[in-house]
Design goal:
By secondary structure, the protein is an all-alpha fold. Helix content is 84%, strand content 0%. Belongs to the polysaccharide synthase family. It comes from Chondromyces apiculatus DSM 436.
Length: 492
């Protein structure tokens, strides 16, 4: 029992560190994104985004799930880790080389010829990032979450400062690519020495049996990771083809803003849960999953719904230039309809520890298909806003399918997973009403200094949610606050 209690404390503290550093890194990235809108036009950013998507598709397609294998199997030997490193780096070089050679046909397929200019730098950045990944996974395996978070934050700070600085000097889209290169290089320099090189670079024979075991676990998971990436970025390619570089650039900005609650909170929770679930006895994992869903809903629902509510004010009342105001409605739809997305990540962490990697792969590819079809079909019918609604619909279907699979694996009823979601979602109704009421009230004051309106809306919405959730979900709120206070005391 004492061991389980210590593991729970490490899990909560690890979640806090990864979320905090992730939010810090994302805040810096967001600041950089906002500043870049003053120096890089939407159409140029659309072209750079096309090149990034192509390069990172190669990155995820060649992962083979080996990093996840290391995290989920904390007792594997050094020979296995060395084998994983060799396969991991070799697959990356082959994949990015193929994408680079096919860069012009890819650009023609999505009718974005300007992306070819940026492909070389994006490909090199991807290769550099791959060099630091195995040491990073080893640190996560060892639950060194604080160190991982700090290093990722340093990398994001490097990207923000360098890309904005070079954009101010007139580098245009190349400033973004240069920032990617410097971020990847810094991560290599600060991450690789943090892990004993003997852990992953001790020369060992390549074992066919070890390869079979790792790849049978990892390849389905890798295909699932590729699909997860595709669900986040391939829709950008559809938007580029349907509506051109400008709308593609606006959509990319809206997606990056809407993605903050999901990726920087939900995904970080998922990173912490995999090693934590792996160390729990099987009979205790069911309760841990339900508690994780509860924590996720209390954190993400107000962030996602609140961001959707304040989106028009965020674009018009902060630092964005008028050329980007049209991203506001896109952001509202993407943020509000993305509340179900992190649920799939939490469930995927649970299924991964149970060895259901093929099931994760199938779920992720179904989600990709739903997103591409939803964006494409609804975009053709109703334009960009309908295309954004297609993304939210796809995430909702993925969450329902994930819950159905958990029911089969662990006999967890739908109601056990849905119950923690209902009350926090109801508490978001007063949040939205408070934001809209504050916006209507401030409209009678005429011109106000920049930032006043968005600050007032955020404060009103946050206050309304806190009061509402304490009323409609008192037990979950008390448990969450108690866990948070305990983690803070132990962290100190």
């Amino acid at each position: 029992m004492a061991k389980q209690s210590a593991l729970a404390r490490r899990t909560v503290i690890g979640a806090m560190w990864t979320i905090a550093t992730g939010l810090g890194a994302r805040a810096m990235g967001l600041a950089g994104t906002m500043l870049l809108t003053h120096y890089v036009a939407p159409d140029i950013q659309g072209e750079v985004n096309g090149a990034q998507v192509a390069a990172y598709t190669a990155y995820f397609a060649s992962g083979l799930g080996l990093g996840q294998y290391i995290v989920a199997h904390p007792d594997i030997d050094r020979q296995s880790i060395f084998n994983a490193t060799v396969y991991y780096l070799t697959a990356c070089l082959l994949a990015v080389s193929a994408v680079f050679l096919l860069r012009e046909p890819i650009a023609r397929a999505i009718e974005t010829p300007g992306m070819v200019t940026y492909m070389s730098g994006c490909v090199v950045a991807v290769v550099l990032e791959r060099l630091s990944y195995i040491p990073d996974r080893i640190m996560i395996r060892d639950m060194r979450f604080k160190e991982v978070g700090v290093r990722n934050t340093i990398g994001e700070l490097t990207y923000t400062v360098s890309s904005v600085g070079l954009a101010m000097r007139g580098w245009g889209g190349n400033a973004i690519v240069a920032g990617m290169l410097l971020r990847a290089l810094v991560r290599v320099v600060i991450t690789v020495p943090a892990v004993d090189h003997r852990e992953w670079l001790t020369p060992s024979p390549l074992s066919r049996e070890k390869a079979r075991r790792m790849l049978s676990f990892g390849i389905p998971l890798s295909l699932g990771s590729l699909a997860n990436f595709g669900s986040q970025r391939w829709d950008n390619l559809v938007m580029l083809r349907l509506f051109g570089e400008r709308v593609g650039g606006l959509y990319n900005l809206a997606w990056n803003l809407a993605d903050i609650p999901a990726s920087q909170v939900g995904e970080r929770i998922g990173d912490v849960l995999v090693p934590s679930f792996a160390k729990l006895e099987p009979e205790r994992r069911k309760g841990a999953l339900i508690r994780a869903v509860t924590m996720m809903s209390l954190l993400i629902f107000p962030l996602a719904v609140g961001l959707g509510a304040v989106a028009p004010t965020v674009l018009r009342d902060t630092v964005f230039p008028p050329s980007w105001y049209d991203a506001g409605p896109l952001l509202s739809v993407l943020a509000a309809l993305g509340v179900t997305r992190p649920l799939g990540w939490v469930i995927a962490s649970y299924l991964q520890v149970h060895g259901r990697t093929r099931s994760i792969m199938v779920l992720e590819w179904l989600k990709v298909a739903a997103i591409i079809l939803g964006v494409g079909a609804l975009g053709v019918v109703g334009g960009p806003l309908w295309a954004c609604a297609g993304v939210g619909l796809a995430f909702g279907l993925h969450a329902l399918a994930s819950m159905a699979l958990v029911r089969r694996v662990s006999d967890i009823r739908y109601v056990e997973l849905l119950r923690p979601l209902v009350r926090p979602l109801l508490a978001c109704v007063p949040l939205v009403l408070a934001v809209l009421g504050t916006r209507a009230w401030l409209s009678g004051f005429g011109d106000l200094p920049r930032g006043v309106r968005v600050f007032a809306e955020v404060v009103a919405g946050a206050s309304a949610f806190v009061l509402a959730v304490l009323v409609v979900a008192p037990a979950a709120s008390r448990e969450f606050l108690g866990t948070l206070r305990g983690a803070l005391r132990r962290g100190r």
